[in-house]
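Lab meeting notes turned into a lecture example. A postdoc, R.K., suggested we walk through two folding results consecutively so the class can see how the record format repeats. The first protein's sequence and structure tokens come next.
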Amino acid sequence: MSLRPMGLPPVPEQTVRVARAAFPQESLAIRVRDRLGEVFTDEPFAEAFGVRGAPGLSPGMLSLVTVLQFAENLTDRQAAAMAIRAIDWKYALGLELTDTGFDHSVLPRFRARLVGNGMERVVFDRLLEHCVDAGLVAAGGKQRTDSTHVVSAVRDLNRLELAGESVRAALEALSAAAPDWLARAVDVPEFAHRYGPRVDSWKLPGSKVKRDQLSQVYGQDALRLCRAVWSPDAPAWLREIGAVDIMRQVLVQTYTVRTSSRGKEVVSKREADEDGVPPGHLRLASPYDPDARWSAKGDDLFWLGYKVHLTESCDNTPPEAEAEAEAEAEAEARGLPKLITDVTTTLSTVPDVKATAPIQQQLADRGLPPAEHYLDSGYPSAELIEAARSRGTVMVTPVLLDRSAQAKSHTGYDKSAFRIDWKARQVRCPQGNTSTGWHPVRQRERDAIVVEFAKTDCQACPVRPECTSARRGNRMLTLYPEHLHTALAAARTEQKTKTWKDKYALRAGVEGTINQALDITGIRRARYRGLPKVRLQHAFSATAINVVRLDAHWTEHPLDRSRTSNLTRLSYRLTA
């Protein structure tokens, strides 16, 4: 398939007349074409297409179809049908009224090409560039970030189902890729009887003994198949099949192979206490989505999938500039729309604090570093707060309080009760004793200082129970380096004031953005499998949300959808 960059074709005259007559108040698709048509060009996608072969559909047009698809939460078939029967979509795409459109299979192939060439965020970035040029968003303002869970597009499997389904997926892939080799390597009728239908709990044995026996059979079959694939006589390319490699990983993570006292090989399921199991961020959960991970938040939320972080502007004050026309002056008087400035998708097991630096770096690379960045308590650390401040960004976020036993009891001596002399490298306790040890160390890849008091001082201290219960008998403190310790202490002091709490209330608005993304694009449920494709989904979801918000800004309509309650409509308007 080749590409001849053209961009969106001009709208045919007949399509213009009919669309204007059918939509006297216009529609989202019509306004997007009129105001944002220059965003959807072909040039940014040139590297993903060749210069030889039959010309394909315009990637600029397909990207516009995808944005409209997400804005209306449509399936591929529905989006392809809209390009045929919806007059406003024909106007947006520049099609004749008699145009027969395209097959729905074009859209997944287009997405696969974007993912394969690392172009998941091209449309999102181009729309943001347009908004920057239009003065709708700028660097140095206020932005806020929050995350939410994303449920994967595969079914939940327990360990027994995962073991059996991984063998089944590998057999399906080998049956299609190397049927003759598979027929020689295994007993196909036996395996077809066991792995023909999908492995399902409703069809598995009810008793624990029989389920344990079946689990052992799954492990033996996986081991037999792995040995066949990795034998010297097998084609080397078989080992590169994704489903085969996943089966091998599931085998290693789920089973152990031992030799009994009689010399017999025994395959048995791993027990967490005896054999150990992989950590959550490495443990596979499905043979059909190797990136999906089990995760938990609090005591009530457990999910298999991913996590998405949304960052939006939240400064409604327009930049100081004289309007060239009365209409622009009126638009500025209404304030600027809140636009999503970054979307980051990670594995579900990645903590929020690990996403802070990448998000701020992406904002800086896009030329949109905020002056104030509002986040919840999961995002900051002393190092991140200080690093952001050095770049001109103030992180408005509650830092975690001292979680030591002394601080929790509210009766003991926490770190704030000790006086630190950084120059003398000594610490004085509330009873006047001076530390005897000052040890710079590395803990969890961070610089730290361990301070130790003498056992003779601590054991004779009358308030020792309020200070330490350590068996070693003396108090020890772990401190950040001076600049980080000072910054952290100042942040903890500031966040207790009413002024800071009133200021931090601005962060709560991002919850409405997540709710809007859920209502419009279904962002909490993955449409596709694999982290790269889920990232593409979220990039287009964020683009669709920005388009909807821009449309609300243009038309002065509240941010809502049809058939919503007054309360929901008010929530969307406040979010805008």
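The second example is placed directly after the first for contrast:
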Amino acid sequence: MTALTLSTAGAATLRADALVVGIAKGAKGPVLAPGAEAVDNAFDGKLAAILETLGAAGGEGEVTKLPAPSGLKTPVVLAVGLGQVPEKDETYGGETLRRAAGVAARALAGAKKAAFALPIEAVEDAEAIAEGALLGAYAFTTYQGSGGKSDKNGNGSGNGPKAPLAEVALLGTKPRDKAYKAAAERAIALTEEIKRARDLINTPPNDLTPEIFATLVTAAGKEHGIKVQVLDEKALAKGGFGGIVGVGVGSEAPPRLVKLSYTHAKAAKTLAFVGKGITYDSGGISLKPAGHNETMKCDMSGAAAVFAAVVTAARLGLAVNVTGWLALAENMPSGSATRPGDVLRMYSGKTVEVLNTDAEGRLVLADALAKASEEHPDAIVDVATLTGAMVMALGNRTFGIMSNDDAFRTSIYEIAEEVGEQSWPMPLPTELRKGMDSPTADIANMGERMGGGLVAGLFLKEFVGEGITWAHLDIAGPAFHEGAPFGYTPKGGTGSAVRTLVKLAERTAAGDLG
């Protein structure tokens, strides 16, 4: 894992492999951001002009490297674009700093240490830079060449990529200040767990079956003092979990329901997080066509997010009880698989006519939601890569939020915006419920095609306990990034929704929610 240090050293005196400064778009050309003063002095006050000559404009995500002059203790200066210069009396936003730090960290893969001299006006800025740099310093190399190991020059051996930046030093901070120390500790815990989620999402499905996933959760629970309970296929069948069993029955890798319980002696409230964990989704008998199943190892991203969020809450010692429910199954076609037209009796007692076996996520979530509701938590939030319809509606970078409580939905939207996760509140139109009426069962797992993401939300709502506040996050778009990396977001698994869940837990612990 990438190390993080806080430093009071000046930019001109700290030894590192590279020194990162910010540059922004000004009215008359690029402008150096606060934090770069000592570096500019080493360039005789001409750094902005030199960067402009090299083609830098200060645009967001722009990277310009140049040799450092003799007055610095680092061989390379990296200028990263921050976008437009803030208006008078305004500062660079947290997400701007987070993304810039992530870009710089990615550009410095293979380096041992980089000093970040980006604008820090308050402890929140330092935390944002730390998060971005640590998240940007990521590579999934388990199955490539040297496994990400670098030689003394930072180059990967064989066909392996360069290893992530090994150490991030934040300049302009206060290492002995309690607030700065707490911010650094939070950034480390949060980003390490997001990287854990990314690793799980990126792991091939032949190496991450429901059973293996449950084993990894159990090990993490022992490490962080979290109680873990695992229901195997026999316990699920005996307990009447028809949704989870019905999805997993076609696979040779049987399903699991995993419960993580983090408790705090001073907690006044309890949150339940429920994650969809389809370790591979072929579509089942309703088989996905070629071109739509190659990335379906990511269909357990919701469970990975919930797992990471609960462990983060434990590592931070939050004064809130957090329960995580991971509904794990592999959706495969076989002679024993659930067929379109079959009726499943769910854990709640309701019956569901399965019209499409590729609408399986809502079936495993329904059982987990019903089980979580029995404990009467103050709120339930489920997270799932649930529908392609949500991607059609909101694109690849934004998750949808649905809820049975408008105020709770708004709170989650505001929290997501605060932590830098793009989201959008979505409705649950009651008229769409009729499309799921079944002549055979209590409800069908499919409804109207138009508004399919909302239909899925309405289906899940049917399995939430009476009077329990609930929200559904459909992260189908941002959970797995297939394009080029940007900001602190890598190609592949992203860890979407972890930061939102953790901030929700922190707000609840502080008594700021309901």
